[in-house]
Amino acid sequence: VQLQASGGGLVQAGGSLRLSCAASGRTFSIYALGWFRQAPGKGREFVAAISRRTGSTASPESLKGRFTISTDNSENTVYLQMSVLKPEDTAVYYCAASEDGVVSGDALRYQYWGQGTLVTVSS
Hints:
mainly beta; 123 residues
């Protein structure tokens, strides 16, 4: 499975951005797709995840209401709609795919990772 993330860039605080991640290869084996982020000098943080089979989602309470994950199974693509962005949202955003049968925020449950796309939010 290969993952290609796109859509990052520079945005002002309060603005919106939509990230995309296209999966290719053995996509039939993917149960869930997720987004994680890593800010400079910090560890990787779970952002959101969605099941391709059931559509169920998971995300931290701190991001609910601002970040929304969705998927287009016909295109094997997962999206992350981000709104009311804050400077602390600045990070490299990674998409990931899991063959485990759960929607999880545990990075260890994801077998495949994309290359990351940088989101910079200016104040």
